[in-house]
């Protein structure tokens, strides 16, 4: 879904999909990449926090989701209560690890989500935790092997990162995403990426003001 929303933003600038330069980020390098100009925008399930907004710009949220659990299909785990003092993974530097620890689980960090998924599949860790929408995508990719369980135990406001050197980008991002929602592009992007997992298309959240 993040990639599709990035394509929407690029298209508004007249940039074709095959002209977009995609650079993979992990939690630890998102802010540095924006600050040093390695990337212009970050769309990577990028939770909006006051700490991040102190060093980079974050427009949105364009999606509100909550943290859940991804476990093997044959797992008996139903909630965080079943994972007390058990190892649960997410990406290093993410808010998900902090939330997992607060819920009584033992957080284990990996560089990428895909690496974390592999550790769940091979039994190295009991579960993976992050935003439910991300987990739904991996469950769909590994149908019959993985499933999403548990109620949401956090609220994550997902936004678009940009450099504080370009504050004008905030309103442009908000306006472009709002227009995409009105034109049905937001719904199309969601259904194409997360729809197969059974997640219903959400309403576009009220986005924060860009006024400082």
Write the layout of secondary structure elements.
Elements (H helix, E strand, L loop, with lengths): L1 H11 L17 H7 L4 E7 L2 H4 L3 E9 L1 E6 L14 E5 L3 H8 L3 E5 L2 H9 L5 E5 H10 L4 E4 L6 E7 L6 H14 L2 H9 L19
Parallel strand pairs: 4-5, 4-6
Antiparallel strand pairs: 1-8, 2-8, 3-6, 3-7
Helix pairs in contact: 1-7
Summarize the structure in words.
This protein folds into 2 domains: 2-65 and 156-197, D-Maltodextrin-Binding Protein, domain 2; 67-149, 3-Layer(aba) Sandwich (D-Maltodextrin-Binding Protein, domain 2). Helix 1 (2-12) packs across helix 7. The protein is built from 8 helices and 8 strands, in the order H-H-E-H-E-E-E-H-E-H-E-H-E-E-H-H. It has helices at residues 2-12, 30-36, 50-53, 95-102, 113-121, 132-141, 169-182, 185-193; strands at residues 41-47, 57-65, 67-72, 87-91, 106-110, 127-131, 146-149, 156-162. Strand 4, helix 4 and strand 5 form a beta-alpha-beta unit. The strands form 2 sheets. It has a 5-stranded mixed β-sheet with strand order 5-4-6-3-7, sandwiched between helices. By secondary structure, it is α/β, with parallel strands linked by helices.
């Amino acid at each position: 879904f993040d990639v599709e929303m990035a394509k929407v933003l690029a298209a508004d600038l007249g940039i074709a999909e095959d002209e977009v330069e995609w650079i993979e980020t992990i939690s630890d390098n998102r802010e540095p990449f924006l600050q040093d100009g390695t990337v212009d925008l970050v769309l990577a399930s990028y939770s909006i926090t006051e700490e991040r907004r102190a060093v980079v710009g974050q427009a949105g949220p364009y999606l509100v989701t909550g943290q859940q659990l991804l476990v093997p299909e044959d797992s008996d785990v139903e909630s965080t209560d079943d994972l007390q003092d058990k190892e649960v993974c997410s990406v290093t530097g993410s808010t998900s690890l902090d939330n997992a620890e607060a819920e009584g689980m033992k957080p284990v960090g990996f560089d990428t989500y895909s690496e974390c998924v592999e550790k769940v599949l091979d039994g190295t860790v009991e579960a993976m935790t992050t935003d439910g929408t991300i987990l739904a995508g991996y469950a769909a990719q590994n149908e019959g092997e993985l499933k999403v369980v548990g109620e949401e135990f956090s609220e994550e406001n997902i936004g678009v990162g940009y450099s504080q050197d370009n504050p004008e980008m905030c309103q442009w991002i908000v306006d472009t995403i709002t227009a995409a929602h009105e034109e049905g592009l937001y719904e199309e992007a969601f259904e194409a990426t997360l729809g197969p997992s059974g997640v219903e298309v959400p309403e576009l959240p009220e986005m924060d003001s860009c006024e400082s």
